[in-house]
Amino acid sequence: MAHVIETAAGPLPADDEKARVVEEMFDRIAPRYDLLNRMLTFRMDVGWRRHAVGALGLEPGARVVDLACGTGDLCRTLQAAGHEPIGVDFSAGMLGAANTDAPLVRADAIHLPFPDGAADAVTCGFALRNFVELSTVLVECARVLRPQGRIALLDVAEPSSAPARAVHNLWFRRVVPLVGGLLSDRRAYSYLPASTAYLPPRLELLEMIGAAGFEDLSHCTLGGGAAQLITGTRT
User: Fold this and answer.
1) DSSP state, 93?
2) What domains lie within the chain, and their CATH numbers?
3) Cβ(176)–Cβ(148) under 8 Å?
């Protein structure tokens, strides 16, 4: 029997149905995804992506695979920094709504259509919790990277201080579903905050990344603890 995670917003999809639910959800919300990202983060998400790209420490012209590229936000940020991104996503709706001239590929992150050592870096923005087999995805990231290639993983987090956490939870778990429901899809924007339950705790996540083939791992929080960035180097 598939394991089901219970949250305040109700049960999350079990592994055997998660991929289908997530794909259909992102197909639905693609048309207004960028608009809501800017509104709900007060445009802080733009700075978070720039920080992630800068933390890679790459020379201009680096080949970067952007996992779960969505509408191309990180691809655009990578291009602005002088790199050559390729976006990968399994949501046809997201790829159809993408606003980037970077090459885009529809594929599952557990079977990336690239040869071993093909990329200088891999990025992923706010999607770790949406993968069904995160450990397998991380191993696949290591496979497509050259030795000493870099990884930058952005995702949501929760502030450590109680007052900040209370404000964050009010915004993330009450306001986000409300605004998302008015402008897009309430079910999706209720799922997105609840889906943080899929994310392993910080130390467990770092151990998982290290076991997949990465070293020199660094973890930092952004936006007062609302987001986290993990970087590392392919062993």
Assistant:
1) H
2) 6-160+189-234 (3.40.50.150)
3) no
